[in-house]
């Protein structure tokens, strides 16, 4: 395919139409003679659009639109004036390709692209709108029939033909980005020489897998190597065996749980009985104090004063039938009855206190016995600590085993991938393939030496 024309147009009409012809096409400066100059020479200029034309051709062949209005050095700064003009005036770039420039009936491909987005985006080939994937696939099938999906990619293939970036201008063979690998260049150069290297894509994929597996292996061994993990695992297994032995010989009271439950129950009973005993003793003390208060009241009565009061009452009130002695005897009987009534609970309370005290003594003895039984065996906290330590050791053991297995699997994968790459290289560097490459080089040198 040859470039027949490149047209730049917008909503106001055609801005520029560049036609190409067979042979060498030059973009030159046509600045008129500087009449103010004393010398009859033309004022030359460099900004005549050479790079812009190449960028627009590359854009029509699938390059990113940002390359047109982005600073090539910073890759971030944008030429706002250029960008706004391309979008606001709806600039449309049309690239026409033809199989034979001298044949007006030759097969023609018309590629159209603009700088708008979404529904206003134009990405057409021969009048048919394409998605990004469809656009690349159609271009590849048109220019490199049957190659879509294989290596090298379409953009890599045309990198030798469209050179305007600094790297591609200064380098003869390595025209791709600085991140391109040797295996990618190998596939590209063999393709450009016309050598049938169908396993180039496979080799690149294999090498990519090797790099991925190697990165994963390095990440697994970021803390320590496989040998160090194996050494640590052996030490862990030894420590686990020692802890298992210690656990098997650890004495635990067979009734430990029952004793603990019984001890909790006894402590609850002790608390209940202690509370009951305190209440009984307090009740007894209150009754005894009440009796003492009543009896002390009886002893404090002044009989002489009471008799004088009775005599005075008799003189003032006639016919008092009760004698003073009878009145005094009645008072004393009332006090004694009150004492009897209040103190009648004392025997019952005293008996209950005695029984409760016996129950308390019995429970205290049982508590002491249970505590001694529990203390004879290893403490539950010690056993729990031992089990926790064992669990942590087993967790680390499982972690180390998993890492070692992953490293082994990764090493095996790398070994298998390297074997496949070696098989491809053996074919690539075989005598037959070398003859094929040399034949193509000879053809190349015939025309370009």
SSE class: alpha+beta
Number of strands: 6
Quick one: CATH class of the largest domain? Alpha Beta
Helix count, per DSSP? 15
Element-level helix/strand string: EEHHHEEEEHHHHHHHHHHHH
- How large, in whole angstroms, is the Cα Rg? 55 Å
Uncertain regions spanning at least 5 consecutive residues: none
- What general outline do the C-alpha atoms trace? elongated
CATH architecture of the largest domain: 3-Layer(aba) Sandwich
- For the record, what is the CATH homologous superfamily label of the largest domain? P-loop containing nucleotide triphosphate hydrolases
- Which percent range fits the helix content? 55-70%
Q: Taking strands numbered 1, 2, ... along the chain, how are they ordered across the largest sheet?
A: 2-1-3-4-5-6
Main beta sheet: strand number and arrangement? 6 strands, antiparallel
Provide mean pLDDT, rounded. Answer: 82
Total separate domains: 3
**CATH fold-type name of the largest domain:** Rossmann fold
N-to-C CA distance? 23 Å
Give the amount of beta strand, in percent: 5-15%
Protein name: DUF2326 domain-containing protein
Keywords: Coiled coil
Give an account of the 3D structure.
The chain has a six-stranded antiparallel β-sheet, covered by helices on one side. Helix content is 62%, strand content 8%. The mean pLDDT is 82. Helix 8 runs antiparallel to helix 14 (380-428). The chain has 449 residues and is α+β, with helices and mostly antiparallel strands.
């Amino acid at each position: 395919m040859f470039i027949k024309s490149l047209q730049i147009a917008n909503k106001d009409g055609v801005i520029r139409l560049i036609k190409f012809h067979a042979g060498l096409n030059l973009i030159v400066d046509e600045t008129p003679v500087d009449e103010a100059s004393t010398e009859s020479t033309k004022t030359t200029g460099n900004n005549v659009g050479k790079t812009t034309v190449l960028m627009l051709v590359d854009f029509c062949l699938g390059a990113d639109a940002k390359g047109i209005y982005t600073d090539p050095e910073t890759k971030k700064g944008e030429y706002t004036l250029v960008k706004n003009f391309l979008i606001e005036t709806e600039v449309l770039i049309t690239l026409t390709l033809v199989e034979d420039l001298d044949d007006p009936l030759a097969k023609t491909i018309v590629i159209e692209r603009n700088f708008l987005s979404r529904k206003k985006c134009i990405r057409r080939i021969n009048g048919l709108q394409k998605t990004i994937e469809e656009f690349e696939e159609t271009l590849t099938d048109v220019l490199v029939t049957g190659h879509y999906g294989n290596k090298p990619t379409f953009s890599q293939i045309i990198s030798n033909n469209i050179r305007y970036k600094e790297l591609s201008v200064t380098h003869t063979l390595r025209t791709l980005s600085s991140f391109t690998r040797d295996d990618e260049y190998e596939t590209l150069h063999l393709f450009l020489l016309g050598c049938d290297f169908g396993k180039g894509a496979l080799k690149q994929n294999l090498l990519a897998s090797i790099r991925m597996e190697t990165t994963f292996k390095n990440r697994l061994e970021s803390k320590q190597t496989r040998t160090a993990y194996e050494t640590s695992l052996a030490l862990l297994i030894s420590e686990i065996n020692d802890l298992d032995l210690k656990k098997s010989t650890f004495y635990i009271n067979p009734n430990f749980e029952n004793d603990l439950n019984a001890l909790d129950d006894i402590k609850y009973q002790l608390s209940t009985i202690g509370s009951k005993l305190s209440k009984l003793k307090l009740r007894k003390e209150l009754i005894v104090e009440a009796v003492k208060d009543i009896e002390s009241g009886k002893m404090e009565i002044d009989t002489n004063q009471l008799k004088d009061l009775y005599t005075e009452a008799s003189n003032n009130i006639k016919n008092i039938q009760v004698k003073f002695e009878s009145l005094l005897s009645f008072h004393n009987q009332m006090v004694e009855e009150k004492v009897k009534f209040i103190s009648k609970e004392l025997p019952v309370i005293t008996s209950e206190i005695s029984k409760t005290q016996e129950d308390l003594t019995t429970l205290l003895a049982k508590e002491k016995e249970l505590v001694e039984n529990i203390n004879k065996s290893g403490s539950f906290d010690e056993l729990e600590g031992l089990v926790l330590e064992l669990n942590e050791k087993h967790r680390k053991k499982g972690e180390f085993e998993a890492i070692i297995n992953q490293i082994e699997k990764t090493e095996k994968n790398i070994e298998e991938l390297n074997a496949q790459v070696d098989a491809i290289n053996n074919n690539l560097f075989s005598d037959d393939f070398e003859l094929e490459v040399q034949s193509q080089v000879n053809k190349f040198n015939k025309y370009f030496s």
